[in-house]
Request: fold
Amino acid sequence: MTAKATGKQNSFLSGLLHNQLLIPIAALLLLTIFNLIADPSFFRISLGYNSDGNPVLSGYLISIIDYGSELAILAIGMTLVTAASGGQDISVGAGIAIAGSVLLRVLCGTESRPETLQAPVFVAFIVCCIVAMIFGAFNGALVAFFKIQPMVATLILFTAGRSIAAWINNNELPIVSEKSFTYFGGYLPGIPIPTPFFIALLCFVITWAVLKFTNLGLYVQAVGINEKTSRLNGLNPELIKFAVYILLGLCVAVCGLIKVSRLSTINYSVIAKDIEMDAILAVALGGNALSGGKFNMGASILGAYVIQFLTTTLYKFDVQSDALSAYKAVVVILLVVLSAPVFREKITGLFRRLRAGKAAA
Amino acid sequence: MQKDSVLELRGIYKSFPGVKALQNVDLTLRSGEIHALMGENGAGKSTLIKVLTGVYSKDAGDIYIKKGGKEEKVVFHSPQEAQRAGISTVYQEISLCPNLSVAENIYLGRSEGKFISWKKMNAQAGKLLKSLDIPVEPTQQLASCSIAVQQMVAIARSVDMDCSVLILDEPTSSLDESEVEKLFGLMRQLRDRGVGIIFVTHFLDQVYAVCDKITILRDSKLVGEYNASELPHVELVSKMLGKELDDMADIKNDAKKYQGDSATPVYQANQLCSTEGIAPFDFYIKKGEVNGFTGLLGSGRSESVRAIYGADKVTSGVVRVNGKPVDIKKPLDAMKNGIAYLSEDRKRDGIIGDLSVKDNIILALQVKTGFFKPFSKAKATKFAKKYIELLDIKTASVDTPIKSLSGGNQQKVILGRWLLTEPDYLILDEPTRGIDVGTKVDIQKLVLKLASEGMSVTFISSETDEMLRTCSRLLVMRDRKLVGELTGDDLNQATVMATIAGGGKE
Amino acid sequence: MTNSVAKRSGLAGRLRKMTDTNLLMSITIIVFILMYLGAIIFLQKGFLKPQTMFNIMNANAALIILSCGLTLVMITGGIDISVGGVAALVSMSCAVYLDYHGGNIIGAILISLGIGLAFGLVQGYLVAYLEIQPFIVTLAGMFFARGMTTIVHTNPFNVQNEAFVRLKDTRITVPFLGTVNKHGNYIPAYVEIGVIVALVIVAILFVFLKWGKTGRSFYAVGGNRQSALMLGINVKRVTFLSHLLCGLLAGIGGFVYFLHVGSGSASHAMGAEMNAIASSIIGGTMLTGGVGNIIGTLFGVMSLALIQTIVQSVGLDQAWWTGITIAAMLCLFLIVQSIIIARRKKANASSAR
Reply:
């Protein structure tokens, strides 16, 4: 009787625990409650007008969906890379610097502060996408064909990337004065919600469509779980790994556009700093195994916004931006320790011994 | 314990969830003897070795060893403990460090002191290697030695650790003849020093070349212990496969045999050869035919079908499908030509563990259909349900991860995956291994049914019975060569075994 | 058949007989010598003076120490990318301690060692005993160290502590290698204290890896973990020890770095982990583990520094060239390594058949 009851309870609990969305939602709740207690004004949203007379919503929540956009877009690519290759790309921050630099270079042409744009934004963005995808392909080739561990392979661009970005523009800081360029990282006239949020939404829809109307999800998971079987079933694991890095390159290009548009210029050493850490964290927080295999894209995206929530909360409590990484590193370690099989075994063993001890007593 | 024995196992039992791996198994090893441990796949050889060396703990039974004239009942908890008690094992997969020198591999982890004297170590190793006639320099990096030499180095390490029992687990499977001879020389030398050697192999000739005694296991039980000189080839095979010679003559084959029709074969290969060390072979199969590759484990039957499917790198050969020459370089080529292949190792090459039953079933067809044409959820579920019903797969739902199913059901899922692609030619490599009897029968019936509907099937099984029941033509392999083809009246246990054993039909 | 090695003769045979470690190290040393000769012939600009060499060493003493730590971890098949962050944290902590808390040199050294050990302990435990991927653990370690550096003190500053400044400016004269300048005055060649520390560490680790039982088990673990376990090696302990030593060396390296620059800053040793990994790889350490040599690492660092000097002296003196050069060199060596080893494997396999 009792055995049956506990059995049922266990299955309910394990069902809950097996739902991937549990972790990000729990984290989100935790942060919400913390902020409610600490300072409810965190959730206040107010309508104001910016310098151009546009209506603009402001508040911490708005800044979360605003600044969380790049992270969420990156998380899409990072999830695919993690699932297929069992490793992460740590060069995304540097990649954004390169993409942004290319974008500015094309927009500004040879001058560093042109009055008018030297090329349409659209063209510049296409060029920026191509360059970012080439760098993604470089990473992908090292991982897929030369069989170098993903993190080490991407370490090359992690270090060289920002130097390359500076080199593209001769270390000058081009400034775009054209107003329409700021729309991507700011506000469209008359719309009080930040544009990056819409860009992110667009990316989600495209991702959803791609996952729905192609076999990308199935192929990536199959390769990530069992490469040998995938090969016997007619897949080409190398090609798929290579492809996901290129897709990540595309995500990087979109982030580059938003980041550069926010400032209308670029700071090579600061732009998208530490974003690779946040992106990896988003994937992990979404309950996806960092060693690859099955993935849940929705959970990763939610994870990205939770991370941004955490960042914003930390900012609110006057934590310096450079110090943020220390806190997040602690969160990462906690997450990976909690999800480590060895650790779980130890904890279960401990519980069992405790229970046995109780029974004996 | 008997007077001259160094190791005795009495009444060993071991079971895993759902499987009885060892039931009341005895083994007696005397000093100065080479003792073959024989049995087909799943007979319990490797479990017995692992129990003996402390990798697994036994459920019941006793192990006795004799050390320094004193007998002792022992329980090992780890390979290290067994090693300390004088039981050393050399595995097929060499467990040495390829990046270190030969001498280091011999002495690593077991010499005294904090520092190494390279000069002393190399000199010692040199002496040891010389005394065992192993042709290698102690300073050479292990990776640059041939597999045979690496194996000998592993043996040298064991010998130097003063082992009284040496277990060789399929050491010869990747060696050529001259290398095998060298290894045998070393084994005989050790036997003369009084070491008891347990030799696990699938090569019958090798057993007779070097062994004194043979212990045979079948279906996790002991068949018996025999003197090698008193046990003829054919009898050994029949004991391993579980058929007495007398029974064999009158096995009835009621089932209809599908020999296929049509003049042009569905698939035909000339001088096909892959990188996996099989001799080039010719092969064909007609529409609606069921044929099979037979031979002992390691004889090259799996490698042959893998070459047909393009799973290994194909190095030469001309392939025709329905008379048209085609190029099959990778699995996708084979799939597009209507060939399906159910692989031998379900866990490693068959299932995608974390994915659902549904995804596992549709995978192959999905890949064949193309990247931009995914099945709708409803369609995928319909496919999955159809095969779950058709093959009677026991699963909670179509979304259950395949890894939580039992072995037999996993196999059926993968079978379903390939049937869904509606192949013209289906290759089944040991589809019945490690699954329950009911499922085995189901699968055989299914093969015959498919053939009656016009599918060509190549069937491989370690159980000759199954092959005889289903195949109209058997291709016999021995030592990675195609050595015979049996049809019609020759399809009986006695002839098959004689051909496998290679001793003719006497 | 089995002894095809003996049948081969001449250079090819000898090359095949060489261990992977020695082969890769020899390549590095040859590349270094060729580069230096090339620099002497084509660039002249002082490459003939021993002091040029010593200056490279002065500037890279800390990197040598960090690379040694990484080599240890990489030989066991792991990786540690926290060393740069740890070095920055050490220098900032020491700087704050010396200038704001009236500390002394001994205390500063103890702080350095303590920080290094703490990182080594925690990371080693997580990697070895909880079996978490070393890259994730040390990536978090790197971000933690960088973040902590800012928390300890935000703005960069130069240390004024007298005892420290005296130590920092100490020059050790190298006999006989000085040069005579235009005016006929003899200018002695010198090295900084850090170089001595680095060379001592290189010597100790060389002995440890070559003759120490524990050192050899590092190679065994990196070569094949499963086999190492079967051969009776405590694999977890070795993995733990490698991370512990790497952390400790990062602490020492951080202090030497601090001694060289004499200031604390959150952006110190930026990208040092990359340079250290690159140096180890160029020095012949394989990412897959089991192959590597401390002397090779020393030459790896020197090669890397030399190529930077060369790149600068041919006129590419913008800051970004440094990063690009290092990345390019690392990429090149990674690919060369993977090709060489794949070819050797193939050759071995064919000789085994």
In short: Chain A touches chain B at residues 212-216, 218-219, 221-222, 225-226, 228-236, 293-294 (CB under 8 Å). Chain A has a mean pLDDT of 85. Chain A has two domains: 54-318, 324-361.
